[in-house]
Every structure is written in structure tokens, then in C-alpha cells.
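Would you kindly consider the sequence and fold I have copied below?
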Amino acid sequence: MHLAEIKKDLHKLASPKKAKILARFFKTGAGEYGEGDIFLGVTVPRARTVAQKHKDLSLKDAENLLKSKIHEERLTAILLLVHNYQTGDVRKKKEIVEFYLKNTARINNWDLVDLSADKILGAYLLDNKSERGVLYGLAKSKNIWERRIAIISTFNLIKNRYFEDTLNISEILLGDGHDLMHKAVGWMLREVGKRNLRAEEGFLKKHVRRMPRTTLRYAIERFPEDKRLKYLNF
């Protein structure tokens, strides 16, 4: 029953005008990264409200929701998983992480990744260091969303001043050909720099000549102008 109610609640909040804007913003055209994705035009705060209303949804129903062609239905499933991970006990957290990794194929746009990866997988790996090898497997995946999950998950580690995995995975991803990955890596390097500038600059000095320009620009965005120009002119 919950599944039908969630869909009904989301459709009540639908906005055709916003749906058109979101479809363009998330690149749903032919050959684009979000090709074929269908939007209702529901904002993240409203989807989060729906998710919290149905927080006792089973993982089986969450999986069915993730299989939806409608973006906000998958988004609601993701937000529900985040909420239940953050409020769950150790057993529940482990169950949700396993579910998350099993369903990465449906976490298939950058907002779905960015709203969940560090809050679920990253949070789990903060407390389970011995399992961080999963990030390296994801970083080498042929699936762009799994690669993005790998680097964005480390945001939780960065916030807790663990930088090694972010720097290692950034190095793996430097040769990635997708602009979305260039931005994600640069963003995480910038976050490292906010907490440990020496660590970020050590990485930059080693790799600046082979870094995609987008990655570099994101990474040095907060640098003073003279230092920024120095890196851009390497």
C-alpha cells in the first residue's frame, strides 16, 4: 500500500513547468547522461517530506520504487534510505549499505548520488575502515554513477579529516573522460583543501599537468587569485 501512496503523493505535488526545467537541467535528451529520465517537477524538500511520511517502507518496496522511470520516485527512495540509515541501528545500517551497493544501477543521476553516497556508504565506511576497498572497485567501474559514488562517498571521510582515500581515488579518476567526474573530483579536492591545504597542494603539484582543466578549476576555486593563476599556468 505504501508504494501506491508514495506515487500518489508525488503526483499530487507534480509541476509540469518545473518538470520541463528539470528535464533540461538533468540532460535527458538523446545521447545525454540522463537520457530518457522522466520528471514530475517535485522539489527535493517536498520529496523528502514524502519520504519521511513513508519511512517504514520495506526495502523490497524501496527497490521497486528505485526501478521507476520517474526521477522523483527514485529520488524519494534514495531520501528514504538516507533517513533510515541515519536513524537505524548497526544491523539496519549494514542492511541498507548492502542494498545500496546492490542497486547502484538505479542511482543513476548526479543528484541521486550526491544526496546519498556520503550519507550512506561514506558514513558506513567511516566506521568500517577495513571495508573501504569497495570504493576502489567502484572507482574503476565502467558505470559513471558508480565512479561518482566512489568519490562522493569520501566526502564523509573528508569531513572527519581522513584524506587518503579521497586522494587515492582522485588519482584513479584523473583520466576519466566525463565532465561530471571532472567536477566531482575537483569538488572533493577542494573540500580536502578547506581542511588541509597542504594535502591538497601536495596532490596538485604532483598531478597538475595531467589534470582536466575543469577538475583543476574546481579544486583551486577558493585559492587567492595569484595562486590560482599560478596553477592555471602550469
